[in-house]
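Hey, weird one. I pasted the Reverse transcriptase Ty1/copia-type domain-containing protein sequence into the form twice and got a warning about non-standard characters only the second time. First submission, copied straight from the form history:
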Amino acid sequence: MKDLNNISSYLGIEINHDVKNNVMTLSQEKYIKSLATKYNIKDSNLFDTPMETHLKLERATEPDFDVKFRNLICALLYASASTRPDVTYSVNHSTRFQSSYDQTHYNYALRVLKYLYKTRKMKLTFYSSNLACLDIYVDSDWAGDAVDCRSTTGLVIRMFGNPVLWKTQKQGHITKSSTHAEYIALSEAVTEVIYLLGVCKELLPSESI
């Protein structure tokens, strides 16, 4: 075995430790740059947002499976799950069409990458904190999917003031009201919290939980 000192990168994630200020940042700038080169968007018009407001994509009537849509979606999923919660919803929206897509869907997925490339220097920052707290932010739309009228859940969980889990996903059932959709979203958030508390009990002293 060999001691490589403090970790500086891991699977495309750049890690920086500021020991003096007790701050750690995670970035995927190099990874995003490599995707920009691969998909040839460096000289394209870039975007300030990852998707249009109220975008309602539908399944392709004549799918074009020659388009490398799935490859791009997989690359975007890794970025959204690792360091870029700001594109989680946009990427999730695109994943719904992996069995029926065409050039239009590919172009909207490219828009997400163009946004990531423009904001590639953004970092996920973690601060040291003695405050033992857990914050949960959860919400849902109602019947937001234009195809099957299902709602979408979005949630962010922070521990000690730092984001540790974020996700968005379409709900499994059609709801009859916005209240019903929000109850389902809350139930999904509670499930995630119970899991995290279980992890904390294994890793942290009992008096800090």
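That's the output from the first submission. The warning seems to come from a hidden character in my clipboard, not from the data itself. The mean pLDDT is 91.
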